User: What shape does this take?
Amino acid sequence: MTLVIFGVFSLLAVTPVLGYGTGAPASVCGSMKPDHSGVQPQPGQPPYTFETSSSTFQTGQPLKVTIKGPDYGGVLLEARSGSSTTALGSWGAPPANTKYLQCSGNSQGAITHANTNMKNNLTVYTWIPPSTPNSIYFM
Assistant: This one.
């Protein structure tokens, strides 16, 4: 399958008192909004971009995904297609300080932070494409 990948994503602002220090709850899978008590989403353009190991993918062939930008503590990462809120594909073994989050009934449908330790440009996530669709984006 041929695909041009582009990214839109939500990085969670983690605070010890108001945040989710051990990962995003499954209740935010659809909206991808942090939902931290008393904390609003960042307005404007995020300071992050996605870098992928390829601009195309093939079913079952792992694709490396890296979030480029300032260090971050919290993350919620999914692959989607079109206007659907369904998490697509699955993620390979979560990198250090991250874990799977069950989204869309998929036990490996998303990755979230496991703690408040900082992640950075060296943190590489592995996404495994499903048999469909033709195009995806990360968020």
User: Anything to note?
Assistant: The chain is about 0% helix and 30% strand. The chain has a mean pLDDT of 84. Strands lie at 6-7, 49-52, 63-68, 76-77, 79-80, 90-91, 98-103, 106-113, 124-128, 137-138.
